[in-house]
Amino acid sequence: MHEVVVGTGALTPAEVVAVARYGARVRIDDGALEEIAKSRAAIEALAHADTPHYGVSTGFGALATRHIAPELRAQLQRSLVRSHAAGSGPEVETEVVRALALLRLSTLATGRTGVKVETAQAYADLLNAGITPVVHEYGSLGCSGDLAPLSHVALALMGEGPVRNSAGDLVPAAEALAAADLKPIVLAEKEGLALINGTDGMLGMLVLALADLERLLKTADLAAAMSVEGQLGTDRVFAADLQALRPHPGQAASAANLRAVLADSGIVASHRGPDCNRVQDAYSLRCSPQVHGAARDTYTHAAVVAGRELAAAIDNPVVLPDGRVESNGNFHGAPVGYVLDFLAIVAADLAGISERRTDRFLDVARNHGLNAFLADDPGVDSGHMIAQYTQAAVVSELKRLANPASVDSIPSSAMQEDHVSMGWSAARKLRRSVDGLQRVIAIEILTAARALDLRGPLQPSPATDAVRRALRVHVEGPGTDRHLAPEIEYAVQLVADGTILAAAESVTGPLQ
């Protein structure tokens, strides 16, 4: 996707990811430019009215009772951005800042905010120039939206504060803008408020997390199938008619993936028959579709919320189509914060069941004939013993990260903003959760592939064999102990870039 057109309608998640993660260019369509101009005319009419209007001729938040004289209003907007650009801590990732800027532009393009056309265009120009304002880890309470993070972006557009240029170098904003032949914006009435009052940061991180989880949910099914196969489990429990007795759509999809991946497995066939007593596998194997399915259904709910939020025009006050300018509470991040927390629970539980499946490979009392810890010479070699420790450490961290942020409101702004969403915090911890889940699944696949090798001469399914062969391009098969950390990182990268999933799908076709 080489260009994303921002109009009065909603951006798609794929468009957000294309700009944020892959650097697609941005263009504002003509219809959006017309709507922006109309709402700006409404704001300019109010700026000359005798009646005070919030954000146009008054102060902000708890200072909203102060009437601002016309000659001070430009200073009011500059002061708002400067004072609210109060973040602290490490820089957040480039893709997050780009998503945040794009989504603010998307709201500006609805024509409901009252900014000048030039101001909206400045966001597109910033993104296209590859300039990334420095935004910090701490500063947002998720209400009124992501104030501090958005303020750091607006500050850069004013030619102030630090940014990363297209080469990734840390430079002053004025220098980066000049190098890209861009001019700093000069804010007029209402504009400062319009640039900082939205859920764009938490929403951007939600959309990015959903993109990663879409891949990881399928990869988790693949890992589970490899574990069932490598541990001589039964595939009978994944039959469609059994799954249909509990009609959750995510469960059905997960079970279908397990059946597809395990199809034509010589290992599974070797112990399938009337005398097979493997009908009650451990829960971590047998209940994989139920757990993965619940995760999928939660994902679907989060995606619905993200879609609604992408269609929203979040600002306060807003310019309505009939020209009225009204205050509202749409900036509150609760809808987004809740699903961000839900997904952190999903990540923790998916990682937890993956770690339990992995652990079963390593215990001679439960791994059905494999060496202890899959070691070449147990006692001399430790095999994958400590890989499971790494999984356990990550899973423990994910359990802590599953504690919800959205229930932890702290009043601010002299009790004017007395209930906040903490959605930004929920989003930040979800990013860490998704990364951890990816690592845990990768270790399960690494361990399961080693077990499949050790099951020879029995042959795995064509799909799991394709995964094993993709892994073996980078990681040797069973043998004496080697430096394990690089092998784990190879596996993580192959999960992250989709190589592992693509290998399985080259046999099964697209998984659900």
TrEMBL record:
Its main location: cytoplasm. Pfam families: Lyase_aromatic (PF00221). It comes from Kribbella deserti. The keyword Transferase does not apply. It is found in: Cytoplasm. This is Histidine ammonia-lyase. It catalyses: L-histidine = trans-urocanate + NH4(+). It is an enzyme of class 4 (lyase). GO terms for molecular function: histidine ammonia-lyase activity.
